[in-house]
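Hi W.,

Here's what went into the run:
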Amino acid sequence: MRRTRTVLTTVATVATAVALMTTAAVAAAAPRGARQAVHPTQRAATISSAPAVVHSPRPRRHKRTKVIMPVHRKAGLAPGTATAPMTYHGGRLMTAPAHVYLIWYGDWSASAAPAVLGDLLEGLGGSAYARTNATFTDRAGNHVTSDIRLAGSTKVMAKHGARLSDAGVRRQVASAIARGALPSDTDGIYVVATSADVRETSGFGSRYCGWHAHTSLKGADLKYVFVGDPSRQAPRTCAAPVASTPNADRGADAIASTLVHEIDETLTDPDLDGWYDRYYNENGDKCAWTYGPTYPSATGATANIDFAGRDFLVQRNWVVSPSQGCAMSG
Ligand SMILES: [Zn+2]
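Here's what came out:
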């Protein structure tokens, strides 16, 4: 069964922001046996420390067994809804140390992303930022892990301009495991990253900037993420609106924030029955495209956090204690 829902997103200080998603298109593209939640695109946004996401005043009734698929529509503000608390829906959370596996799909030879994201993941584990996720607990009181590490990676060559469907993203995960490049790991987060020339056909850049899903593979519940280099296809909808970026690679810097968004959500809602609010927004969604205080990096770029000695501009994450709201540390 499939659940649809409507979510309106905008930036609090700019009544015009926003992206368009259609439920039917995303639902139709979802691979069988996989469930998916998307990271919204943004348009015409300014950096603001104000809560960015507002929501439809009339959500559909939640039914626990169905898919979560955010839909973003051009809309004005719906006052009051941005503060909707997140609640726990009883599902399993990622409480054991999490292992990130990167699948580099396409041509990354000219990109700084492998080095930049490697450092990001090295610095993320155990950081104050990662502890934002540890504010979330399961029924037994176990905290979501803040121990996140890069546990493996593999490269997949593709024709220039290759296309990849949602089912194709899932197949890349299955294929990497089948050929022994990566292990089958229920504590894993498999990240399929597509290079700037590769098109994810269900709406990368127009409907979403990334998404996460889970699937059963030979009896193992595996969590996986799609992120793409938006520097050619979606330089405005999937990247922060800043003059220069901390690592001087717009694609890599944009992916950094989207990747953190999807990791945050996978940890706290791995099977789409964990933590989300009454509008089905997960923690990353609630703070998407907001950054809190920023500082100029050594090169004058806009940054807000240091991971492993490298500056980044990554979105804030929702915390549920001591009070609910967007934060850079937990
Ligand atoms: Zn999201």
